[in-house]
Specification:
The chain is of the alpha/beta class and 362 residues long. It folds into two domains: 111 residues, Immunoglobulin-like (Sandwich); 175 residues, Aminopeptidase. 23% of the residues lie in helices and 28% in strands. It is built from seven helices and 17 strands. The strands form three sheets. The protein has a six-stranded mixed sheet with strand order 6-5-1-2-11-10. Strands 13-12-14-17-15-16 form a six-stranded mixed sheet, sandwiched between helices. The longest helix has 19 residues. The N and C termini lie far apart (65 Å).
Length: 362
């Protein structure tokens, strides 16, 4: 005789299982306690150092700048330091603190690991700025260095006169969104500022006859792949992504290596020059290989406005930012040939973007 067996579980236990399965946190990449990943990128006049770990480790990490261009981070516990690169066998590179000797990360940058700290030596350090970000948890350190006596003002991008590459179709992206707030400040987050700027720009461009597509219209999470899919549905468009940086300058990035690099740089130079002029700050453009916008089949640039920790984005400031961006993007395309995007030659391939989460944009 067949017997029916019924299993009964407490309602609270079942609800917990459902929440874990459907929660976005279930798919989130988590870092093991004690494991710290390090990556360093060189820009025009500064290095960006990023430590990624679990929330508790990043929260307790202390920056202790030292003389002679050495920056030390104390974690307050024993950690395992690994680089965001792999060896010839495909294994993650780890720095053994027992060796007690520096490892050259790149030319001019030496990394030394200790059981509870990490020291980074960089030549000609002039200034250090630090911020903490979440999702994933990161400690970001921007280390400025002397650049052959050249001031930032001298490095400001060129004039706003070459607009022949512009299109009447634009895709404008507000960086971050949802749980990923980007840089925090007492008054607003990077996510909120970017969305506010993007809405202002889209409304103004629409009144000037431009066709504008937004990757997000509210405070929602949109993956980098989804942003590229939205952008890819628009033909002959220019892609602009809005963020805030860690300093008081305006930086506009391009992703070198594809058929649209030259046009992207023209737009980036014009935007950085306009922002420098209207906001009365330093402005420059920079090339950043592997940036996710390299996946867009057309001119693309990523704008980093001044940090909300250093600049208050009130109504007057937003109006100045809007004017600076419109100086470049509101210019009508000069002819049909100016609107059409240059297609890659058969032998040229678009650079494959590095797969990153939204939190990795910085």
């Amino acid at each position: 005789m067949r017997k029916n067996v019924f299993l009964c579980f407490p309602a609270t236990w079942l609800l917990t299982v459902i929440l874990l399965v459907h929660s976005p946190l279930a798919a989130e990449v988590r870092y093991d306690s004690g494991k710290v990943q390090l990556r360093i990128a060189k820009h025009a006049d500064y290095y960006r150092i990023v430590f990624t770990a679990d929330e508790a480790t990043i929260e307790k990490a202390l920056l202790a700048p030292k003389k002679n261009g050495e920056v030390r981070v104390d974690f307050g516990k024993t950690v395992s330091l690994e680089l965001n690169r792999k060896d010839s066998e495909g294994n993650q590179i780890r720095i053994d603190p027992a060796e007690k000797k520096p490892m050259e990360y790149m030319k001019g940058v030496l990394v030394t690991a200790r059981p509870q700290s990490c020291s980074i030596s960089i030549e000609s350090v002039t200034e250090t700025k630090t911020l903490r970000l979440s999702n994933p948890a990161r400690l970001v350190i921007d280390v400025s260095f002397a650049k052959n006596g050249m001031s930032k003002k001298e490095d400001t991008a060129s004039a706003i006169d070459n607009t022949s590459v512009l299109s009447d179709a634009l895709v404008i992206d507000a960086g971050h969104g949802g749980d990923d707030k980007g840089i925090f400040s007492p008054s607003a987050s990077e996510s909120e500022i970017a969305l506010s700027v993007v809405r202002d720009v889209a409304a103004a461009l629409g009144k000037r006859g431009k066709k504008v597509t937004l990757t997000r219209k509210g405070d929602q999470a949109v993956s980098l792949d989804d942003r590229m899919n939205i952008a890819g549905s628009q033909k002959n468009a220019l892609y602009i992504s809005i963020h805030t940086g860690a300093g008081k300058e305006a930086v506009v990035y391009t992703a070198p290596g594809n058929a649209y690099a030259e046009r992207s740089e023209t737009v980036a130079r014009a935007l950085s020059a306009s922002l420098a002029k209207e906001l009365d700050i330093s402005g420059r453009f920079d090339r950043l290989p592997g940036l996710y916008i390299s996946g867009f089949a057309g001119p693309a640039a990523l704008v980093e406005l001044p940090s909300p920790l250093l600049v208050h984005y009130d109504k007057k400031m937003r109006e100045r930012v809007l004017k600076a961006i419109l100086n470049v993007l509101a210019v009508p395309a000069k002819s049909e040939t100016a609107v059409k995007q240059q297609r890659p030659a058969p032998q040229q391939q678009l650079q494959q973007p590095v797969k990153k989460r939204v939190g990795d944009e910085i």
